[in-house]
Amino acid sequence: MGLYLTFTAGRVEEENYYITRLELPVRYYDYRDLLTLGRIDQGERTGLHFTNPVRGYEDEGGKGSRVVLVRLERGFPLFPYSDKPFLGALYGVIFADAGSLFHDRTGFHLQKSAGAGLVHHTPLVETHLDLAVREDWGVRPVFAFQFKMF
Q: Rounded to whole angstroms, how far apart are CA atoms 70 and 82?
């Protein structure tokens, strides 16, 4: 279990901006949970935004100054007894995501997706290839790298 709070501040075109993001990742055996909350406080000309973190909705151009995400994953080794390093690091994953991007409380719309995928674990990088099913039954492939340092 961990708690990550990031705070970034700066100045663009004589306007100040502040970005806060809180992540609470939890691991319990083969289960992973993630709660993410984020907010950007900025002026009219700065133009910073979050992109959609819900798998299957990432590329639709949604932008917002606030983000909320709840993610639940269950992973399982595909080849637990393999003596080959590549196959031993390959995991299957099933997941469910729920989250939203919005600018104010009136624009809040919860988006949901669920699906399955493959994850390859190395000491520094996790490579994900997921197939997300959205709430409108649209199916989208999702490819992602996640860098980590422990």
A: 33
DSSP state of 44: T
Element (H, E) at 147: strand 139-147
Sequence-distant contacts of 38-41: CB under 8 A, at least 24 apart? 38/66, 38/67, 38/68, 39/65, 39/66, 39/67, 40/65, 40/66, 41/17, 41/65
Helices within 39-94 (DSSP H only): 85-88
Report pTM.
Answer: 0.81
Q: Does residue 16 contact residue 43 with C-beta atoms inside 8 Å?
A: yes
Q: How many CB atoms lie within 10 A of CB 58?
A: 15
DSSP conformational letter for 85: H
The C-alpha angle with vertex 104 and arms to 102 and 107, in degrees rounded to 5, equals: 55
Supply 77's token pair. 């080794």
- Listed in sequence order, the DSSP H helices in 28-82 are none
**Owner of token pair 């979050």:** 50
Higher pLDDT, 20 or 46: 20
Cα 81 to Cα 106: distance, rounded to the nearest angstrom: 52
